[in-house]
Write a structure and sequence with these properties.
This protein is an all-alpha fold and 99 residues long. 66% of the residues lie in helices and 0% in strands. It has one domain. The protein is built from four helices and no strands. Helix 1 runs antiparallel to helix 2 and helix 1 packs parallel to helix 3 (55-71). The chain is flat and about 45 Å long.
Length: 99
């Protein structure tokens, strides 16, 4: 497995876990969105194909996907914001209102 493929799988796992943690149904149970793992596997396969032509290019692409997964809010907070909230740190990605 190439570095880029591993980074895409890490990004998909992060997105899947983040969404699972933030979503609850009306019954109070957490819901699983199976679209995320399927899209992750398809994207990882595409990046693995790119790795055959350009290993450094696939690593750069995987790194961009991971950064996007870390800072993009998906059904709630972005993973970086959620981790900061859990650790009790302030959210540095959102400017306070009025400043």
């Amino acid at each position: 497995m190439d570095t880029g493929t591993g980074l895409v799988i890490a990004a998909g796992t992060l997105t899947f876990g983040n969404e699972w943690y933030q979503t609850k149904s009306y019954s109070g149970k957490r819901q699983l969105n199976w679209k995320v793992p399927i899209a992750t596997l398809l994207a990882a396969g595409a990046v693995e194909g790119v790795a055959k032509a350009s290993p450094k290019g696939s690593a750069a692409l995987g790194f961009m996907v991971l950064i996007g997964a870390l800072v993009t809010p998906y059904r709630g907070q972005a993973p970086v914001s959620l981790i900061a909230d859990i650790l009790g740190k302030t959210n540095s990605f959102v400017k306070p209102k009025g400043k």
